[in-house]
Amino acid sequence: MGKIILTGDRPTGKLHIGHYVGSLRRRVELQNSGEYDKVFIMIADAQALTDNADNPEKVRQNVIEVALDYLACGLDPEKSTLLIQSQIPQLCELTFYYMNLVTVSRLQRNPTVKAEIQMRNFEASIPVGFFCYPISQAADITAFKATTVPVGEDQMPMLEQTKEIVHKFNSVYGDTLVDPKILLPEEEACLRLPGTDGKAKMSKSLGNCIYLSEEPDEIKKKVMSMYTDPDHIRVQDPGKIEGNTVFTYLDAFCRPEHFERYLPEYANLEELKAHYRRGGLGDVKVKRFLNEVLQETLEPIRTRRKEFQKDIPYVYEVLKKGSEAAREVAEQTLQEVRNAMKINYFDDLDLIREQSEKYKG
Ligand code: TRP
């Protein structure tokens, strides 16, 4: 059996550089590695609706934004299937059957769900659909027989939940579903890129994101006002690297050749860090360097995005074709699930024969 990737994002906003280092960059590499038989990239609009039920317009608008970000980063419709979750009704049916294999208390213990319930003040009244989204995510993953799920660290509990469902399904109904593996970013800094203000997570509401589509002067402004080491007041003071957002971003983005181009007096990031720790290196210099690195990284993405923006009907066509192809794959899995669960009444000739025999007397 081949290797298959499935991953995706909720369309609740444009994608930012946290998405990029956390998963997008890797996806493009995996897509181009030739090691995978199929790559499915899902825009999870149905999942986005589980906590935006009253704001369908926001989800609708952001489907195309996310698709543009995907194409801009180099996801290639010739190599990857780009699909919209809600266009694959088979996923709902799978979710409905998997619901029988998961307990309420297990869902309540899911750390991501727990955190999200708190964040959204859902404590008193949790929408059932939202509560069950980990089960629907298991349907996403298993419908495409994904072997590999490249995601950020925050998705780990979802993968664990999926694996439990797979094991339970296979032990109750016989070997049917594929047990997926999570693929986390290799670099520590990429696991969870902090916001430009040093807060744990980039979020639109905090205004601490740098978007993939951001214009150069905006990028520069955000970098120059980034959180560093609050105790590093004068240039000659020793500075801290840990928790210093500028260095965390450099860990995530900079490569040795960036030093050759923009800061040749240092050979690599280790030297730069050592100087900062010793004292004598000012924040502005490090920020200017980070700005160069980010500008170089984001320029081709922004340019490609603008090209695709000129042909929006093409982008919808890509999503439509991808969704159609995805539906066929999901339908195949659904048939296997129905067979395993013995709800394939009309094409099970043995069943019909058995029942006939029973009543022949
Ligand atoms: N939960 C993911 C997010 O919040 C999106 C998602 C939906 C997903 N279905 C998936 C990711 C399946 C990986 C696999 O971004």
Automatic annotation (TrEMBL):
GO CC annotation: cytosol
Annotated keywords: Aminoacyl-tRNA synthetase, ATP-binding, Ligase, Nucleotide-binding, Protein biosynthesis
Molecular-function GO term, any one: tryptophan-tRNA ligase activity
One GO process term, biological-process aspect: tryptophanyl-tRNA aminoacylation
Family of the protein in this entry: Belongs to the class-I aminoacyl-tRNA synthetase family.
Signal peptide from the UniProt entry: none
Enzyme class, broadest EC rank: ligase
Enzyme Commission code: 6.1.1.2
Catalysed reaction equations from the record: tRNA(Trp) + L-tryptophan + ATP = L-tryptophyl-tRNA(Trp) + AMP + diphosphate + H(+)
Annotated gene: trpS
Record protein name field: Tryptophan--tRNA ligase
